[in-house]
């Protein structure tokens, strides 16, 4: 099963810099070794992260999101203690998340490109009109 998971940093604070990005990817590698969760792609933007995840059907989407959010938060706060000062109440992730299945027949390549492009200004500028539901209102 393929999933697209989006997690937002607590309070939409912009702390996903290079250090956090590198640690996040290391933690995800460790999660892959412990659980049957494979991170196909990880894309960070300033205040949120997109994951393209492959897992076994025995894991529910809720379990996958819970494992990813809890372990990454705990490990990043342990490895980068300076981030705790920027957080609201010491929480790394906001309460919610977005997760959806991805089809290998059509949407996998599109989602993969989208996740890879996170944080790249060129991609946002190129596709800014697609992001507007009602372009004449903006």
Quick overview of this protein structure:
With 138 residues, the chain is of the alpha+beta class.
Q: What would you note in describing this structure?
A:
The protein has 138 residues and is α+β, with helices and mostly antiparallel strands. The protein has four helices and four strands. A hairpin with a 3-residue loop joins strand 2 (37-44) and strand 3 (48-55). The longest helix has 19 residues, at 61-79.
Largest sheet strand order: 2-3-1-4
Rg result: 15 Å
User: Strand portion, in percent?
Assistant: 15-25%
Write down the CATH topology: Alpha-Beta Plaits
Low-confidence stretches: 123-138
Please report the first level of CATH classification, the CATH class.
Answer: Alpha Beta
The CATH level-2 architecture is identified as 2-Layer Sandwich
Structural class given helices, strands, pairing? Answer: alpha+beta
Helical residue percent band: 25-40%
**Morphology:** globular
Query: How many strands, what sense, and barrel or not for the largest sheet?
Result: 4 strands, antiparallel
Counted by DSSP, the helix tally is: 4
Compute the average pLDDT.
81
């Amino acid at each position: 099963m393929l999933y697209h998971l989006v997690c937002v940093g607590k309070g939409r604070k912009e702390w996903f810099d290079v250090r956090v990005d590198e640690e996040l990817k290391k933690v995800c590698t460790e999660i892959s070794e412990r659980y049957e969760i494979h991170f196909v792609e990880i894309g960070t933007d300033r205040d949120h992260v997109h994951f393209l995840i492959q897992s076994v059907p025995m894991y529910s989407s809720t379990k996958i999101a819970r494992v990813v959010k809890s372990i990454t938060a705990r490990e990043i706060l342990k490895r980068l203690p300076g981030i705790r000062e920027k957080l609201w109440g010491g929480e790394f992730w906001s309460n919610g998340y977005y997760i959806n299945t991805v089809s290998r027949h059509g949407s996998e390549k599109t989602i993969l490109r989208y996740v890879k492009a996170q944080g790249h200004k060129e991609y946002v500028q190129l596709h800014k009109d697609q992001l507007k539901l009602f372009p004449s209102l903006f």
